UniProtKB/TrEMBL annotation, chain A:
<dbReference type="InterPro" id="IPR027266">
    <property type="entry name" value="TrmE/GcvT-like"/>
</dbReference>
<protein>
    <submittedName>
        <fullName>Sarcosine oxidase subunit gamma</fullName>
    </submittedName>
</protein>
TrEMBL record, chain B:
<keyword id="KW-0560">Oxidoreductase</keyword>
<dbReference type="InterPro" id="IPR029043">
    <property type="entry name" value="GcvT/YgfZ_C"/>
</dbReference>
<dbReference type="Pfam" id="PF17806">
    <property type="entry name" value="SO_alpha_A3"/>
</dbReference>
<dbReference type="InterPro" id="IPR042204">
    <property type="entry name" value="2Fe-2S-bd_N"/>
</dbReference>
<dbReference type="Pfam" id="PF01571">
    <property type="entry name" value="GCV_T"/>
</dbReference>
<dbReference type="Pfam" id="PF08669">
    <property type="entry name" value="GCV_T_C"/>
</dbReference>
<dbReference type="InterPro" id="IPR027266">
    <property type="entry name" value="TrmE/GcvT-like"/>
</dbReference>
<feature type="domain" description="Aminomethyltransferase C-terminal">
    <location>
        <begin position="874"/>
        <end position="960"/>
    </location>
</feature>
<dbReference type="Pfam" id="PF12831">
    <property type="entry name" value="FAD_oxidored"/>
</dbReference>
Amino acid sequence: MAEHRLKPLTALGHDHPERVTIGPVTMTEVADVALASVTARMGRLPDVQGAAAAAGIPLPAPGHWQGGSPYGAFWLATESWMVEAPFASHEDIRALLLQVFGDAASITEQTDAWARFDVAGHHLHDLFERLCAVDLRAGQPGLATRTVIDHLGCYLILRDESLVSVIGPRSSAAVLFHALETAAHSVF
Amino acid sequence: MTANRIKGGLIDRTRSLRFQFDGTVYEGHPGDTLASALLANGVRLMGRSFKYHRPRGPISAGSEEPNALVELRAGARREPNTRATVVELFDGLTADSQNRWPSLRFDALAVNDRLSNFFAAGFYYKTFMWPAAFWEKLYEPIIRRAAGLGSLSRQDDPDSYDKGFVHCDLLVIGAGPAGLMAALTAGRGGARVILADEDFRMGGRLNAESFGIGGRSGAEWADKAVAELRSLPNVRLMPRCTVLGAMDHGIYAAVERVSDHLPEPLPGKPRQVLWRIYSRRAILAGGATERPIAFENNDRPGIMLAGALRAYANRWGVAVGRSAAVFTNNDDGLRTAADLEARGIPCRVIDSRKGEEVIDTSGRLGLTSITIRGPKGIQTIRCDALGVSGGWNPNVNITSHHRSRPVWNEAIAAFVPGRDGPQGLAAAGAAAGRLSTHGALESGAARAEEALVDLGFTAPKRSLPEAEDAPIAITPKWYVHGGTGRAWIDPQNDVTVKDVKLAHQENYVSVEHLKRYTTLGMATDQGKTGNVLGLAIMAELTGKPIPETGTTIYRPPYTPVAMGALGGRARGQEFKPRRLTPSHKWASEQGAVFVEVGYWLRSQWLPKPGETHWRESVDREVLTTRRSVGICDVTTLGKIDIQGTDAGAFLDKVYANTFSTLAVGKCRYGLMLREDGIVYDDGTTARLGPNEYVMTTTTANAVLVFRNLEFARQCLYPDMDVQLISTTEAWAQYSIAGPNARNLLQKIVDQDISDAALPYMGCKDVTVCGGLRARIFRISFSGELAYEIAVPTRYGDALIRELVAQGAEFDAVVYGTEALGVMRVEKGHVAGNELNGQSTALNMGLGKMVSRKKDSIGMVLAQRDGLTDPGGYRLVGVRPVDPARGLTAGSHFLEPGAAAVAANDLGWLTSVVHSPHLGHSIALGYLKGGEARQGQRLRAANLLAGTEVEVEIVSPHFFDPEGARLHG
């Protein structure tokens, strides 16, 4: 992490991530993951795939997320992925990914464009059927999709059967978290 | 035991529930509805009719009820027009009758009934036509007071609601025999099934009948089926859930009444949930609704549909009366008589197929006798309950939601679903016209089997229980001829046979005209019991068959829906998302006043202690910025990362001016045109690398611009190598403006930002505060020496605090959008008021920015004659001749002496501010031939505000027109 005198705030505006348990689910704000979009430039997909394979960066199929260490990724659009990595070691994730992909991909830092809330527990489908149109009951771990929660465009990732990440616009983090809490109270 | 409670039924007699109706306390049991409990207590009178205030009781035992409408609960939870027939009884329930004064038993407005000759169909249209102005102020208020349904509490709804999304292979609508059989078949076949039923007890008519299925009572068989379904993990049961409508692509809307059977919702729990059900296939098994036969005075409390009469006896153990009669034109009506007799209630059958008919009734507040005409003459008999059966109408409603017209079925004398209903939806059971129990079971199984095969499942071996399969044997009879009094066909709207005849007489014979002329089928029940009857009578009058007379089709919702349910979880502010800036926390601590811009909450101004008027704060912010340095959060401006080897060429297409030639490390102001040549957005785009740009848009248009860029990238220029992604929220960005801007920033930025290192319109990657990566842009909206500095958003709060702390030595100020607006008007920069969707670059004085050396969106159409008129609107500066006079935005320019009429209009003031620097009001405006009018004196008149000010037309650049400060 860079040495400087500015102290970060979480997306909810606190010094430390928020954590709330309602019934069987626990919702945790996640601030320790760096994000960057990686999109193959025209005709450069083979280069991107080759570089990713060499660097251990997964490039999952549409609608999927794949974890890994240090890099995980979920599909964004045609030949486009959001790459995740630990914030502590990859704060300047774009610079690191540029070393991997060079000019084969357009890479954009997205870390602070998003707020991430991990929802852990049982019966998560009961909660998320109140929030979005994703058919989580039929979803398998590794599902990653774009959806809308209370007017907010979000990504939903089913990391395992008892863990869902909701990644929504950072400026509306409070709105999104309120929606999660209210729905959880409503369901559980 | 209460007065009319008899043995049997599906109620829990081990527990009693106390409830109030019109202030009187009664008792019922779990399993009762409000209507069944009141009837059990001998209360037949439950309401007054809409127009004539006739005494009315329930005619049904379900959601089709037109009469027994009550105001349920009290205080803020009071809900008018609630059907007592579907209100699940709970302990402590309170309900009041409505549309009566002073009481239900004595209603003064029942005088309307005496004046009924004046209130026939079309009365309002004919009578209140003149004078026109009286309608809104006089006639309508009087009519509304005299006629109507319940009243609202006028308090905020204290309950919360929710919404949700569920998915299934097969949605089964209705849990009667057809629905249960369909769900069992599909569930056993392994499909994901949702079974939704509006009732709190699944089973449909099986709960109301005495005949058996497979050696059990209907209710027992239903219970067993429900138990099996509940055991299947792939089946979801949704009782108390009304499917309201068929939407597109297999989506159905439904409302689940989660808490309506409780005194109030449990803490945190919703009252109702609006579900969006995504189905691959659906089966409508919604049953059928019985219809009455019209005869004189057929609306007295105690007269109801025959099926309802036996439902009250069989399901709820209620004898509506102690001596009963049934008037029927079909065999189903005979079941009511048989069931009542079996329960010890004598019941006389009047069978129209045998030439008998009921010609009149009596009883002021409830039925006491009926008069029968038959082969043996006219006879009056005493009875206090009369069941009427004119046949059953399949509940085709949902099949009509995509405009499919039902078709007439002679065998049952009713409409059945047409073949062109919503794709993927099939009807089964009574809803499909299969009125026997066997028919329901068989068709439910068959439709489910078809769905299973369609979806790739294997249908299980069919196993149907034995059940009755008797035909309904109907001989249609719609109304009793020869009477002189009123025979009701739509009791909710007080529509009579005479009204239909009058509509026919006045040539309102189309079914749609009939509805609107008579109000047949309107209001809460939407004609579930009356529509077909009215149509049949019109057919008889016109001499046409019923199908040729017309069909009414239905729209969603199937039954009334609380507005709260449609709102879902959101309340108040939650109906739209809020976006908070990185400086929001700090600004809140300062007491900033916020304004909403594109869902963002931006600081509008930040008052200091002692400032009592917003102008004091804004003037201070402007003057301090121009004197020393000001800081403004500009994170809200849209930021779009544009990369790719064709990024520059792409920008040349979407911007009117050229960007491919922009040097790396430089910024340029750009104009974006719509296809029609009108300017729709502007902003600064910086070139960060050979193939990398970052575009800024206006706050409000960020989403629109991104959407348009994506469209251009994917559809207009698919061969270009260009990639886009929004980075608006990724970076906290602050504008630092004023003579001390560089001095302040240099305390924070780790690298040299001198004029040589970072000249005007330069940009570069830097670090701040000892190493945090940042971007700096030397651009200005205020006309001052200015920069924008961006850091990752999580550090935005710390950066504003750092800037304020470091700026203390310069007396730095944080300014809001008002000060921003003042400074941009002082500099003559256009913003939202000038980018008004009808102005070109030429109008804005920026015509030269539209390059003709390249093709760009809107470039060609911007050259149209009408848009290039030399005498057209041009952006001008405006100041009052008398500096003491304030200008008003929206004022229109007029020549001295010209009348304030549209023909003399020369343009208008778009933006008005008070310039603390100049000490008076200034404005920007669009003025015809504005360039040639500089120095002229005109009038700025605002007829709405009642103001008129003499103004001088000047350059729009009020402050530092040479731009010396910009380059400072």
